[in-house]
Amino acid sequence: MTATIGATDRSSASTAPALVVSSDGHAVAEMPAYREYLPSSLHAEFDEFCKVHAVEGLRTIEPESLLQRTDQDVVEQWIESVIETDRLGGQSDPAKRLVELDREGIAAEVLFSDFGLAFELYPPLIAAIRGYRRDPRHVEAGNKAHNRWLADFCRESPKRFAGLAVLSFADVDDTVAEIRRAKQDGLRGIVLPAASEDRPFFHQSFEPIWNVLEELEMPVTTHTAISSITDHVATGTLKAVPHPACAAPLMTAQVFFFTQQILGHFIWSGLLERHPKLQLVMTEQGSGWVVAALTGMDYSWERSYLRRDIREVVPRPPSDYFRRQVHLGSSLFSRAEAENRRQIGVDKMMIGADYPHHEGTWGAGPGQREWLRATLGAANVPADEARLMLGENAVRLWQLDRDVLVDVAARIGPTMGEILTPPTDEFFPRGDIHKPLTSAW
Hints:
Shape: globular
CATH superfamily: Metal-dependent hydrolases
CATH architecture: Alpha-Beta Barrel
CATH class: Alpha Beta
Distance between the termini: 31 Å
Strand content: 5-15%
Oligomer: single chain
Helix content: 40-55%
Number of strands: 8
Strand order of the largest sheet: 1-2-3-4-5-6-7-8
CATH topology: TIM Barrel
């Protein structure tokens, strides 16, 4: 796949702008701002909720929430370098978001929701520990309010923002209508919810959803802690831990596993066979795990004692479906993933900055440029392969306007030479850069 590059070509490649698209960003409104997007019948309830939220509501980016997962010194650094310098405003303000993207050299961004939707009081870990769940009515209304708010957010820069609709799948006809509305409003794809174990994603009742997504060419994305094969939360396990620090690794292991299992559900159920144009994106769950997962699935299909008539439903080896229909939002991108990129799939991987989360490439150490040097540069990734993972894969998948983004990249930088130069300093002693190829957190 790698072409031979001569001296002149190398010089040209090093000075060329790097077209960077983040496959993983998060946007959410300030809570009161959702009111205008909610039906008037819920305004009184929402007003009362906002009073409670103002006192005890939490988002993942706030110090009290971060202290559930990391150390005091890390949180203090976050307060000093991010909160006190007013770098979090871009979570809700598109103009401030563009300032952050320009600062980090990111030409465009795929936008997921974040925790803090209408009627949502806590992020997942705290919600699980406290046994908190939203009323299903509030979930439905909150999702729709967010989708309309996000469409307005994206209209501020429709060439640079690719928004994703949030859905619950509770009512199939309503979900189909919401997908059509999202497409009309300019959103680019959807995010899978946590499925009920009684109605997995391959349940026959959901076929109209997959049909309309194929028709509209809207990719289906999954994201750790948002998408899952189960809506069960092990509240009792988290409450029983002997020390508060034990809760995060226990819960994170579960949410990673249950999100990654979506790949098997889509393949072994024949869902990808029945819907050959459907595109599935696995975001913020690492990339290296797919190598062993696909090797195992192919072996099961080819040589194990698995019933051969599985081929009536899955006529191709599982890896064929991966090659044809699956993509990887490789957030947060590690050096091990860069080194093993060809095994994983150079044409599948898309880097992600994970703004505004504290572990993201944008806020850790000196920022995105140095993060890319510590991964792509340290792994000596050639320019033609780096271009795919940095932005070209995302441009193709999300049908972005490449010409516009090339002009943006030329304006904001960095150059390919800057980010493909191996680092000389260690700016990231903790975090995902040194994460092993298997899942870790």
